UniProtKB/TrEMBL annotation:
Gene Ontology MF term list: methyltransferase activity
EC number from the UniProt entry: 2.1.1.-
Lineage start: Bacteria, Pseudomonadati, Pseudomonadota, Alphaproteobacteria, Rhodobacterales
Species for this entry: Litorisediminicola beolgyonensis
Name this polypeptide is given: Class I SAM-dependent methyltransferase
Keywords, in A-Z order: Methyltransferase, Transferase
Enzyme class: transferase
InterPro entries the record matches: SAM-dependent_MTases_sf (IPR029063)
Gene Ontology biological-process entries: methylation
């Protein structure tokens, strides 16, 4: 398999975890949230990215979906998958959620599930994990002059930290790139942050249940149509 991810991995000086990873099929677990939303296809088709950044990866299902799309379209794009793999505030605030992190010796091991899912799906050639907090990663990527054609933001769902993520990652988006914000419309703090940010950067916002598109170009827009009624458990992550 040709390793086209050498590009961003080499540029960032990252080790390749798949060189040493011993596949453990018992860790495969394809659980995710909105991971196959139609906006991924729309954004990737419109931006034809060479690099995609995903902030908030969890078990890898949205990264894997984007890998499928870029391969089906022959785009040769890489997906830089940024996550601490330590979970979210709900894994402490909501009783019973801690075990979702599969702690080993008291430390979360979701990263093992992510690796198993990526290898099982056969996308280790295009998905490049960056285990780091989103803020530090954005700072370093900005400093290194990295630009991405599509950025998917799906990390913290609190207003202030979501707004900070949008502000941190917007400069990483190419001039013709498209930002996808997860949980727009389903988490009040996220919806507020995304709306405020769109106004702050003076860009139109295209929303659906649980995702929004924010193009970097002020002249790029999308026609949306309502396709179906959908019920949704609000603030469920
Ligand atoms: C909702 S999950 C991502 C779901 C995934 N995109 C999918 O479709 O299945 C949110 C992820 O964001 C990560 N996360 C939360 N805060 C973060 C931060 N400050 N930096 C990096 N990752 C963070 C968590 O570890 C978690 O894996």
């Amino acid at each position: 398999m040709k390793d086209i991810s050498e590009g961003i991995r080499a540029r960032l000086g990252l080790e390749n975890p798949f060189d040493t990873y011993v596949h453990d099929p018992s860790r495969i677990d394809r659980q995710g949230w909105n991971s196959r939303h139609g906006f991924f296809e729309v954004a990737i088709e419109a931006a034809a990215p060479r690099l995609i950044i995903e902030l908030g990866v969890w078990k890898g299902m949205s990264s894997i979906h984007m890998a499928e799309i870029v391969k089906a379209r022959g785009l040769g794009a890489e997906i830089l998958a940024v996550d601490t793999w330590l979970g979210s505030s709900n894994h402490l605030a909501k009783p019973g959620r801690r075990e979702e992190l599969h702690p080993v010796d008291g430390y979360p091991s979701v990263y093992r599930t992510f690796l198993a899912n990526v290898v099982d799906a056969g996308h280790q050639d295009v998905i490049v994990p960056l285990p780091m907090d989103g803020n530090s990663a954005a700072y370093a990527l900005n400093k290194l002059g990295v630009k991405a054609g599509v950025i998917h933001i799906d990390a913290s769902h609190e207003y202030a930290s979501c707004l900070a993520d949008l502000r941190n990652y917007w400069p990483l988006l190419a001039d013709d790139g498209i930002l996808i914000a997860d949980d727009y419309g389903s988490w009040p703090g996220v919806s507020r942050a995304v709306c405020e940010f769109a106004a702050e950067v003076d860009r139109p916002l295209f929303g659906s249940m649980s995702k929004a598109l924010l193009p970097k170009s002020p002249t790029l827009g999308f026609d949306l149509k309502v396709t179906r009624k959908r019920s949704y458990r609000r603030g469920d992550k």
